[in-house]
Amino acid sequence: MLIRAMTCAAALVATTALPIWAEPSQDMKAVLDKLSELGAKPVHTLDVGEARMQASPADAAKAVQWTNRIPSAPEGQIATRDITIPTANGPLPARLYIPEGEGPFPVIVYYHGGGWVIADLNTYDATPRSLTHGTKAITVSVDYRHAPEHMFPAAHEDAWNAYSWVMENAASFNGDASRVAVAGESAGANLAANVSLMAREREATLPVHELLVYPIAGNDTTTPSYTENAEQVPLGKADMEWFIRHVFTSPDQAADTRVNLLGHESFEGLPSTTVILAELDPLRSEGEALAKAMEEDGVPVESRVFTGVTHEFFGMGKVVGAAKEANDMAITGLNAAFDAAEN
Fold first, then answer.
1. In CATH, what number is assigned to the domain containing residue 261?
2. ∠44-124-96 over CA atoms, to 5°?
3. What predicted TM-score, i.e. pTM, was given to this entire model?
4. What is the residue range of 319's domain?
5. Separation of CA 281 from chain center
6. 18: confidence class by pLDDT, cuts 50, 70, 90
């Protein structure tokens, strides 16, 4: 395990480290400029309450969309219904994104980002809406308990319980339990990956596919991408360290393989996976290492680093060109898995 981690790290330094002077694309910069105009400050300079209340990158993207008079249709016409998922640890808020048609539909269990501390179903509305439009699947966007009120591993427990509930109750909302995928962004991508790993370990039904968008996959904050993007907006090194302080009772907990996915001895037997990464993101290197390790263990992986974009770009398809490309890549992977599961 240690040898593989060192090998991956060496390969990243030798072949995939990107220039420290890389700049955001023009459309990405427009969103970052708008975020600054909205008064957003680096998360690490705020307390938790302030971080939760300030404008988000999603707010900035919507503001740019409004300024440029870009319509929200057709994704904006997706029907939604808020539900509650019962679990042993209490009820979890969730939102169903429902396509047109008769069904039963494939299902995507989606976990939002926010470092397990900030954000909610409303902040991360664009991605599940777009995935539902592109796949004609029901997306179940799951909220989970947040730190510091509920420390690690509360969110991970909730992610598994939500997936288990969906597998048992998909028919109740016109979903097909034989075609269930998991997806997430950042901290949510880590949760999605853990669901697959837990299903394998517990000999439960695996998802048919996993979509991992700039996942938290390691606990090393000295990787090439952390060095290059230490001061990046909206996520820099100090911001990630802020999340770590608020999520874990001890920094040592970040070595747990539920967080440090690269600490797993094997990824053999996991479902096909799409890994989407951002060039200007501290998490890029660990995402690259995860994709490489999964491929080495025989997992079918499609991965790509999108240049000129930062963390949080994925849901910005209306205003950032690379986000539209990434969304199309995600939909292609999901649809292929759903088709394979049906045939």
1. 3.40.50.1820
2. 150
3. 0.94
4. 2-342
5. 13
6. very low
